[in-house]
Amino acid sequence: MRNRIYSVLEYCIKFFALIPLTLITFWTVRYANRVSLDDYETSIITSNGLKFYMVFVISVIAMFFLYRLLKGIPEKWLFIGFTLCYMIAGIFLLTHIQMIMRADAEICYSSAAAFEVGDYQKLQFGEYFYMCPHQLGLTSYHRFLRLFSRKEEWVYFVNLLWIIVVNLCLWQASVLVYQEKTMVRKLIIFFSFAFLPHFFYFFYSYGQVPGIGCLAVAFYFTVRAFYKNCKISMGISMLFMMFACLIRNNYLIGAIALMIIYILKALKENPAKRLLCVALLLAVVTLPGGILKKYYENAGDTELNKGIPFSMYVAMGIQENPEGWRAPGWFNGFNHETYLALGCDVEASGEAAVQSIQERVDTFMKNPGYGVEFFKEKLITTWCEPTFMSIWSGPIISAGCETDMGLLQSLYVGGTAYEWLALGMNVVNAILFGFSLLFILAMIVKKKEFTILELFGVLFFMGGFLFHLIWETSSQYVYPYVVFLIPVAAGGIHFVYEKIGKGK
After folding, report:
1. Does residue 504 lie within any of the structural domains?
2. What is the total count of domains within the chain?
3. The pTM is what?
4. Which domain holds residue 96?
5. Based on the number of CB atoms within 10 Å of its own CB, is 18 exposed (0-12), middle (13-18) or buried (19 or more)?
6. Which end of the chain is more exposed for a tag (fewer CB within 10 A), N or C?
7. Is 31:380 a contact under the CB 8 Å cutoff?
């Protein structure tokens, strides 16, 4: 009976995953969003032209030649080779670009330096951490890094290491899961490095990279705990899941995905043990944030309130952008401005958010056509920016960053180098989304169950899609969901290759 329930629930996951994947695959093939490389973040949606379709078709064909080429390369050397390329490229960029931190990333890093000398001004009423106490985890991470070096370049170099750790964890998890499918493992290695937005994010110091690094480590040790029945691995998984959520609380979506997996597995085996894991995971991702907040209250001899209510981010996520620069549902200042205007009153701010949400829902109900267009534009600008704003998040020239190389200037001002990168990444994204969609369809038709690697990737992606459907959005927020979708896409490529009679 419990196996039957598991099968039904997993089928529902597969079926509902088809909806966002179909939409995003179609839109990625049809459109491309360009975000201006400046503080305005203006989105321009364009239709893909003949160049994209030619490169896309050539890439799909070439991919199958690549499949045959990968057969002759040991996966260990494949990973080492790509890692060396990343390290060389990363160090080259670090030595040829003068990066300047900006916005929230700069506030969190400079606050870490201030806290070291007992300056807790940013904790006071109306200041940054009074509004956003959830960012104290990121600042604490920066304080830890500063124990080893106080140069900003150190943060970026550690980011580069985290990116390689993510790819290593995906590969090693696949070694445990796909013991007989060497080619799937090699495809995971290839696409984890070919997904270049992940690489270019090493210049982003806002917590996205160390967060996904901790999530990847947590997931790898979860897989290891399942396959090796290792309690120590489960403990390490819990620890790094806690770090991921402290550094960036968006990774709670990853924790929820793991909880769902534990619940599903409880239907098949060791129900008491799996449900205990759910309870422990829930505790480690929710309780430490309060403890950290209390620590800073004591250190700064102040009292922090709950900060900007989360409902304000939902309200902002379904609003138009009054200035007309950013796309619908992107940051427009509503949360900060309203919270400060109401004297940092959490209850009053929450009521203002609920009122705004109700007004917007009424507008959508009265004009459903407008509602459809609103969310369509929001989703396209979020998911169809080929670089996922990895270039925007880096050393853009408009922010005062400097480089002595023409190629890098072209990349970071939106010139020819940027356009070719965007074209290439648009093709890679279309391949990843398209083959993920094909893989899920194949699993439904063949009535096969997901592995834990595929199940987590799909659940994490679905969670991210639903979250940013209603929450404040940005293309830079969603790239982690694509990273964990890579094993699903690799499965799809392997399946298609088998169907044409060339795979094993």
Report:
1. no
2. 1
3. 0.96
4. 2-499
5. middle
6. N
7. yes
